[in-house]
Specification:
By secondary structure, the protein is an alpha/beta fold. The chain has helices at residues 16-25, 70-75, 88-105, 132-141, 156-175, 188-195, and strands at residues 2-10, 38-46, 49-57, 78-84, 115-120, 145-148, 200-202. Strands 6-5-4-1-3-2-7 form a seven-stranded mixed β-sheet, sandwiched between helices. It binds guanosine-5'-diphosphate (GDP) and magnesium ion.
């Protein structure tokens, strides 16, 4: 069975947890615990293949501008970078995050890194601060998937995007053969306990 590892990245309040919970459970809950890192597990079937999906949903860190840890970037096979269309700061932060992912994968990753850029809270378009065009061109510059979504209102679009991203990850993993992706000296369990905190969730 294939293991697929995704990490959600983005500013505090951008809607990372909302988007993920929407994808995993089809529901929008509204408020999510935001004081701990979470690792979600889900069996997932795509094109008739069984996958073991793990998704890292980080809690927000203070000093948000360098909001990503190196480990999730090394660990993950693919990324969902989330900003809020009604918050320009979160868009600028997403831009930084994309640059950081590129930078840290420069030497190891041949081909495109599977990334999906999400402009969330599309339902708040009356207070929009980032145009859809800006989002799309940032995605094009970084060769990533892009869509504006609303975790509050959409399920299908979010689900389709995750599915596309997972397909892209599967193609990349096939290109790289069976070699273990995370080649750091720490074991995975240790990595999760040390870096991601001890909470694990199954849905
Ligand atoms: P995170 O810090 O990135 O994980 O953000 P959360 O998922 O905790 O969401 C932050 C806040 O935004 C919560 O109050 C959510 O209910 C709200 N939120 C998330 N997605 C949407 C959305 O699509 N539309 C609206 N209106 N609010 C949302
Ligand atoms: Mg969260």
């Amino acid at each position: 069975m294939n293991d697929i590892k995704l990490a959600l990245l983005g500013s505090e309040g951008a809607g990372k947890s909302a988007v993920l919970v929407r994808f995993l459970t089809k529901r929008f809950i509204g408020e999510y615990a935001s004081n701990a890192n979470s690792l979600y597990h889900k069996r997932f079937s795509i094109d008739g293949r069984q996958l073991n999906l793990e998704v890292f949903d980080p809690c927000s860190q203070s000093g948000e501008s360098r909001c990503i840890l190196e480990e999730p970037v090394d660990w993950a096979d693919g990324f969902v970078v989330v900003y809020t269309i009604s918050d320009r700061t979160s868009f600028l932060n997403a831009k930084n995050i994309l640059a950081q992912i590129k930078e840290s994968r420069r030497e190891t990753c041949k081909g495109d890194i599977p990334i999906c850029l999400l402009g969330n809270k599309q339902d708040l378009c009356h207070s929009r601060q980032v145009s859809e065009e800006e989002g799309r061109s940032l995605a094009q510059e970084n060769k990533c998937l892009f869509q504006e979504v609303s975790a509050a209102e959409d399920y299908l679009e979010i689900s389709n995007l995750f599915t596309k991203l997972i397909r892209h990850v599967m193609e990349q993993l096939k290109l790289r053969g069976d070699r273990r992706r995370y080649s750091g000296s720490k074991s995975m369990a240790k990595l999760i306990n040390n870096v991601f905190g001890k909470r694990r969730k199954s849905v």
